Structure formats: C-alpha cells, structure tokens
Amino acid sequence: MSGRSSKRLRSSEPQGSVKRPNQEQDPQPVSQLEKAQEVFRRARKTRLYDQLLDLWKNNASPEEFQACYSSIFKELAQIIVGRNDIPVPPSGSYLLAFQYLCNPNLEREQGGGMMMMELAITKLLEYIKTEDEKKPTLQTPASNSKPTVSNSVITAWKTAYVGNAHTLLQGAMDAMYSDSFEKPYANFCAIIQGSGTGKSRLVDKVADSVFMIPMVLRPTADISGFPEGDMANERPLVEFFCEEGTTTTSAFHVQRRYLLFLLKIIASVNKWIDDREESGLGTESLAADWKEFLGDPASLNRPKMYTEAIDPNLSRFEEFKDIMDEDVKFDTLKNRVKIYINSVAKKIEDAKKIEDAKKIEEAKKIEDADKIEDATNKKIQPAIVFYFDEAHHLTKTVVATKPQRTAYQCLCKAFTYMMGAPVFALFLSTYSRLSEFAPSSRNFWSNRPMETNPQGSDDNMNAPFVELPFDAWKETSLVIEGTHSAEEICSLKFMARFGRPLFWTILENTPSADHNETIKYAMSKLELRLEGPNAMPKLESGLNDPLGLNDSLGLRDRKADQPPNYPAQLLPALAVRVDLTFESNRDEAVLLEGLLVASSMRTVYSVPKHRQYLRGGYSSEPFVAEAAARAIFQWCHNTALGKASELSPADKIAKIIAMYKSSIPPALSVWLDRGLIDKGTRGELVARTLCTLAHDIAILENPDHENVKAVIGCSISEITFSKMIRVEDFLRALISKEFIDRVLDARSSNLGGKKLRDAFKDGYVHFTQFVKAGDKSTITDEAVYLLFLRGAAIQGYGNMVSADLVIPVWIPTNNSQYPDRWSMSAIFIQVKNRVNKQFILIDAQETFQFFTRPQTQTGRKLPYITIAMELGILAAEQKKAPQPEVKQASTVGRTRKGQQAQQKKNPVQVSMPATPTAKRQTRGTTKQVRVQMPVPATPVRDTVQRILPPTPADVKVISRELPHITRSQTLQIHPRYEIDIKGCSGRVYNVIGDADKSHYSSILAHKDMLAEHPRSDPWIEAVRQMKPYWVAPSSYHWAKMNKESRLGAKINDDKNTDTNTNNNTNSNSNNNDDDDDDDDDDNYYNINDEVEDDEVVVNVYSDADSGDTDTEDVA
What we know:
The chain is 39% helix and 11% strand. By secondary structure, it is an alpha/beta fold.
C-alpha cells in the first residue's frame, strides 16, 4: 500500500486473534522421499509394470526401456530438483529399480519388499541430484528472447481439474455431431481461447470419458509451451502435416494422404481393443484405459502409433490400398470409410453401454436420481474424437498448389470423407483468425468439390467453442466476505485465483520466493507479436502479413537489445488496463483483436454464428492487470532513462512520470486514428486513461514509497501496482496543483461537516483495470466490495445512466484490516464530451441505492465523491468547418462576452449549500432544480444558482442550500462531495503534460463520415451539399427565407426590405433601455463557441442567502 498509513494497514494481526477461515497458511514441508513415494504409488495403479514386463519378454532394446519409464522419471525429477531435462537413466543400471517401484505386488509384501523399494528410490534420488549438479539448468537467461517452458507450468498442468467446462464441451460436441450427418465440414470444431485458459487440460479431462486420439502439433523449436509436441519416426508429428508442397502437388493427394493417416490410427485402436479382449481385461473404462495406454507425448506408445501411421508401406492396410487412386470417387470412398469406422466404433459403443449399465446399478444403490438419469439418457455421441493441439501451425504452410491449400484446409477436407461416421475432430489454438479456422460463407475456401449435396456446404462449419474455465479455483468460493485482510488482497497469490486457471495452478506449485517469476512469465504473454509461434500463416512465398500490420505498426526488424516498438507494444497492456473495444466492421481490427487473443491473453467471449468477427475483451483478472501495469512501467522506464545514470533519484522518477504522461495518449490515439478502436465512447476512454495514469503515478511519486530503488532500477520483481492508494494521494495525482487544495478543503454539498481530506483520511482506492457493468446491481456497496477484492473499477455499459465510472473506496471501520460491504464507498464519475456547460448531479442514494446497510444498524454514514468530467473539446476539423451562428434567447442582462471575461478572471467555482431552495443556472438563465432524496421526509435540494460577484479570494460562488431537516433525518444522508472538472488540459489535470493536450483532443474529436475523405474543401463542401447528413449552411443552400436565417439559408432581399421598412418604427418605439443590452449578444449567443478556459468546480458549505427565482421541477 502506498501512503502514510501503509504501515498501519500492513500491521500484523493482534495477538490472540483468530485465524480467518479463508486465509491461506503455508503447508508443512514434505520430504523428498515422501514425494517420490507418492509418484510411484500412482504409477503402481497404471500398467507401467506390465509394459516393462512385456518389453523384457520381447528382448526390447535399452532405448525402448528408457522410453517406457521416461515419463515417470521426468515427473520425479521435476518434483525433486524442479527440472524436466535430466537425462533418463540407462536401463542397464536402473531398470531393476523401476521394476521394483512399479510392481504393485511388491508393495503388499512387508519387510523385504518395502526395503527394496526404499533402496530403489534412494538410488534414483542420488542419480537425479548428481546429474543436476553436472548439467546447468535450462532457466532462460535475461538476454534470451525465447523463454523456455516453466517447470512450474508442467507441474501446474497436472493439478487436479476443477470446474465443469469439460461437461459443457462434451455437450456442445454431441450437439454439433448430431447435426453433422451428411453435411460437409460439419464434423469438426475449433476451440479458440487465449493463453493459459486450459484448452489442453480441458480436452485431456474429456478424454477420461470419451475415446480421444490426441495430437500435439508443437514444433521442437517451440520450447515455451506445454505439453510438448508429439513425435513420429523421430521427428515432430507437425512436420508430417506441414510438408511444403511443390508446384505439382495437388490438394487431392494431400487430402488422401491425411485420410490414410487417420484410418491407420483407427486401425491401431481396433488392434488395441482386440488385444485387450484377448488378454481378458474386458472393456470397462475403455476410454480412460486408452488414455492411460497412450500416455503423454514422451511415452512409448504414442510415438510408436504415429510412426506406424505415417509409414508409406500400404501392405499392412489392405482395406484402403487404392486410396490414392484418382479413379476412386469421393462418394465411393466415403461409404467405404464409413463402413470401416462403424465396425471399430461398435466395439467402443458396446463397451460404453456396459460401463453405463454399471453406473446405473451403482447409482441405484445410493439412490442418486441425477446419476441414474444421466446414465440412462441415450445421447447421440461420436465414438472417436481426434483433437489437434497447437493447430494454428496447420494454417501456416501451403501444402498444395493445385489449388493452393494449407495443411489445415486439406485436413478438414479429409474429415469430410468421414461424414456419417461416428467421428468428430477438435482443433485447439490461441490463434483466432476466423478466415482460417472457421471461415464465414463470404470468404469460404472450399471450391465445392463435394459430389453429395454440395448446396449450402459453405455454411456448415461450426462456430468455435470458447467457453473455457474462468474463476475456477481449488475451492468452490474464491472469497468469503470479511475474511481477507488488506495485505492479503494485494498479494500475488490472492490475485492469481481470479480468472484463468494458469496462474493460480503455477503459484500453488511454486515457492513464494519465485512468485514474481510468474509475473514475468505473464508479462512475456502481453507482447503483440505478428511473427513467431503465433504468427499469421504464410499464404504465399514471403507473405506473412497480408494486411500490412507488420510494417504499419513497426513490428519488423527489431533488434534484441531495442525496447519494444512504440506505440504498438503498449497496446496489449493498455487494452488490459483501460478496456479497449475494437471495431467489428474493419478487417484490420478483427485481425488485430485475433492477434491479441493469440499472443496477448485477450479473452474471446463469443463468435457469432456467421463467424465474421469475434467479441472479446480483457476480463477481471487482477494478476494479468498487475502484469500489464508492470509492462507499461518497464517500457516507460527504459524509454525515459535508457542508460542514464547521472540524474538524481527524484529526477529519474520525474522523467519516468513524464514518459507516462507523454506516451500513453498517443499510443491510444494512433489506434483510434486507424479506425481500429470503437469510437463510440471516446470521452469514457479518456476518463479511464486519466484515472489509470493517476493511479500509477500516485504509486511512483509517493514520497513514502518503500521501493524507491526498485522504481529507479526498474526492478520488476519488487515494484507492484496493486497497492492500495490513499484517496488524497489519488486525487493529488489526478487534479492539478492549482486546484487540488481547494478540492481537498471542500465540505459536503448536502450536509456540510468535515472537509474532504478529513472525511477520506483513512480511505483507499485499489484498482488496476475497469470492468463493464451490465446493470445497476453492479453499482451497490456489495458488488463494489467484491470488485474491490479483484482490484477492479467499474465502467457503465449499455444503457447505464448517471455514472460512467465508479471507483471503489474502502474506508476502514474501527481500524479493521478486513474490508466488507459496510466499509465500502466510491468515487462516482460522469463524463461529458460537450462544449456547453451542463448541470450534473450524481446522487448515489437516489439513483443506485448504493448504501445497503440496514437503517436499524447504527454506524457512521460513509461519505462519497462525485466527479463530473466535462471534457468538451472540439476537433480541429470541426472548428475549421463552416458553422452557422445559432443563437438562443437569454433572459439575463449580461452579455456573452461579459460572462466569458468573468470566467477568465475566476477559474475556480465553489458551490455552497445554504437555504431551502434549490436552483440551477444554465447559460445565463436561472432555474430552480428540486431533487428528492430517498430517505428524509423533507427533500434535500441541491442547487447551482446565479453567479455572484467575485469574492476577495477570486473564487466564483455558486450558492447551494439545505432544507430544514431534523437530526434523525440527517443521520440517514451520506455526505456527498462534488467536483466538477471542465476541460481536458494540464491546467486541471495533473496527469496531462503541457504538450499532451493535442493527443487528448485527437481522441475526443467527433469525426464525421467525411473525416477520411481524400480531398478537402471545396470538394468536401460539394459532398455536404449531396446531403449525407443535414448541417448548416451546406444543407440549406437551395432555399430563400423571408427573414434572417439561423441556418445560413439565403435571404429574400425584396420581401425582407418591405418587412424591415414596415417594422422599423415599431422596433424603435419598443427599444429596451437596459444598459446591459447594448448589442445582439444581449439576447442571443452562439452555442458553438468553445469554452476557452478550463476550470474546476468544488462544493463547500455556506449559509449564504439567495434570491427568488422561478422554479422548474426535475423528475
């Protein structure tokens, strides 16, 4: 936590306090011997011992023995020394040890048997430690740009599965399969989601109950991912699929070659089932036993099966020896394939029926109606499911030139030969270029080669499956109200439990000292990469970027010692922090969002049925947001300081902060200018950016920061942005020094009482990202408390009114270190991107019923803050365009020029509550506003009244009055502190540099449909006269009006002269002698004038009287 109270908040619990139920305690250390015993205890439940015996009987080679026990040894080495690269021990010296440890019969023997097992474990542990000392670790050096897979990731992948995503996938897969009969391209589906969401783990879980054939298509050069790639014939399996075609390679031959490969694998399945039945093992738990038989990619059986499947010798497979013959037509071969697969599938289905019958009997014994119903439901399911992990590699290589097709396209065509057969396929990837994995009908890559029912085949492909686990932790409830201390909330281990399962499973298997290494791992996944493992496919020779993003974004040819390119590399981190929404009608934007999914952990929420774009975003994941904050800091630090060392610590921090202010706005502006980011909420985007900058800068410039050296030295392991920040420090970082003290000295506008700085002296904000509110339920103290635990602020979404942003504020009660809903308040922000001043009132009690503590409970009424951000900047293009002088009547005897002059003299306005009337001033017109409060019998009326003459303090005073209410009624009202910030410049915002206003002007500019027209005036004026929209005067040039036109239309001079002559006398006789009405501006003003001065309006308590005016009720 930052701020002067951070030590108090970090204080330990008082002696004798009770440990909160959800607080995590460090587990007791477990000896290496116990861990090793557990590894082999699990191994004895598998068929590993039988496999070793079979190899022994068949006089297998030493290499075959090593391959058999390689998987269990790597798991043991991972646990003992945290490495999986220790050489597998030779079978000549260690085979007997593995036989002892894997023998289930030896475990039952007491005395000698247990002693032999302990000696075997000791021997293996000594070997591992000796090899560990000889061979250097494979930890990634700092200079290496290619990170290796973390050992913790390997261990985390084996953590017990939680959640029900596997049942959702199985249900969706069954539904798609049941609708795929005789429909080309309908018997497969892509699973697309960001990194770390558990795609591989999901299908591995489904394989417990569904007969699945796994293929991991990871190249050996990719050492950053897990699981490792499958091998075939001592080379990566992906190379079999991705052999680049020659100029004479036809798509037909590639498709048939893939089909033959798939059929050979099914033949291996058939042989395994037959061998199993002959050995008397039966068919119970067939899918799970098959999964165990195959093992992981490093096991013995998987590479052996794939090696046999790619064998070009067809003599072993007589049923399809003519498969490469072009005379064998599609329909003929499809029917033969269907018959063969059905014969194998029947064995699997029969085994499934036996298994379901046993489940029914077990469910009846315990009278479990749900299990009985689930087992008795007859579902249409595929018998065999292929899945291809890291499938994006298939889209990168053109394997056929007649016509040009990628490996993915040819493999999908191969599955069309299995139409009607009980087979389904899944393609797993982070890469989400929909035109490759699930093309829409408008850009489908099939040339309709089907002979059977080609009509409509273009639209048969299934939309990708995206519903992966989120907020799935080891316990059902991630939090319990009131049980998490402020210190725990800010810890990495607490933050990691939210969102994707990757990070909490890593931290569960990582010593606390290495938790920051996991943050660095997350930071490496927030880079925008157009080349590398997640690059776009090479559709033609030398073409890797069909839309030109590599060159336009400056992502090519970056040297290893150069910082990430500006501003492209800031995009992923900024998208996490300020929540960027991309346009769905631009191909470049759709591609860019897909790249963020592939390389930067963006989450896919939905892919519509038409598959033309995706809906994605960055969900509430405090761990990812912390990684993004550190990534932004690292970029700003390296760019601002470089190798400079002569500056003082204070000057270095000042340069880093200046880099924040000058780099973030243009980084956002460039994407808006390219039309890639949704422009619908520009004002809200600016507000989120300003608040995020204020948050980070408050941490960096805090004089009490205990990690000043970490900031200066860019120590990513020590600095953290998930600290809690005092409300005063946050406001000081947000609002300029010219106005901040007056803001902090303001009293509540509805009750008076304490100054803002005193009311919030113990208040803290804690947010590193913004989440969307779908309805008003999100803006209550209960929801705000839960989002506070996740380090999230709220942005309005859809039809939300009154508050565009809500920043949770925690105000500890009785010095408690444990937040709960009753200690939560908030800062409510409303954003207006308009030039003209507006009356803005945010009443959290009336609008949101925010505070839900029952009135029967005693306790203080928590204060809250409202901020109106009236950004009001006109784009340069708008100011250059012809603007009619649209005028409105005014009833106040003061000229517009006089009002502007008065505003320049008095930059700060202070509104003051006082008497029982509530009034509002709108551009010279005094109106009263009556606002009803939810609790008191006598309504509280908030007002903004006529501007009075300046006070000696050179401050405009806007009177605000209170009704006469009793003390008991007052106790039901929560103090509201109002701040109104007009403009968007460094004069009012401390986070905007002197030269940065133009960037915010660009972001806020409302560009019309002609903003990108290739020619300027007079050609744009000619387009306006074509009436794409109606605007004065361009749209009204075709008419003549009898009087002066406010629309810029022509004047009928003849009739106007007669009218003016007749009315001239009357006009003179009725002339008003008011001294203030000395020109036309007495009664009219141009509403297109820009507010020239930025200002801050705050509210303080006063007893000033006010004059009587007409009232206007506001519902």
